[in-house]
Design goal:
Elements (H helix, E strand, L loop, with lengths): L5 E3 L3 H13 L7 E5 L6 H6 L1 H6 L3 E5 L27 H8 L1 H19 L4 H13 L1
């Protein structure tokens, strides 16, 4: 028997609808949303979900703080043969990395390197620190 359950990659409207249906039929509503959250993907956690945090008490569990490895720096000069983005089943990630948006993200990351250096940390450490500071 499940005592608690959550959603993954649902919209705020879908979560609210599930909550309403659960309440209507005296069922357990969702307690958390699992959402992608990193410096390039902040909208859902910071803008769309806060109302639900306060209104119905749903929480957030985030994933991919390094944007599937993009923030790690391993893709700053392309897609290495030894990376997961080179695997056939991760073609979507390779497409994302080599896209125009991917090139813009790489440029933004290069702009963040001096900040990370001033703080005596790596870019991934800066990114994870940015994420964790937002949640507290």
């Amino acid at each position: 028997m499940a005592m608690y359950w959550g959603t993954s990659r649902w919209s705020a409207m879908e979560i609210m609808e599930a909550y309403s249906v659960a309440r209507q039929f005296n069922l357990i509503p969702p307690v958390c949303e699992q959402a992608e959250y990193h410096i390039f993907q902040r909208e859902k956690i910071e803008v769309q979900l806060p109302e639900l945090y306060h209104k119905i008490g749903v929480g957030a569990m985030t994933w991919s703080p390094l944007a599937c490895g993009i923030i790690s720096g391993k893709y700053d000069i392309g897609v290495p043969d030894s990376s997961r983005a080179s695997l056939k089943c991760y073609q979507w990630l390779k497409d994302k990395i080599i896209s125009e948006e991917g090139r813009r993200q790489q440029a933004k990351l290069k702009d963040l390197i001096p900040i990370a250096e001033r703080l005596s940390c790596t870019l991934p450490q800066l990114a994870i620190g940015e994420n964790s500071s937002r949640r507290s």
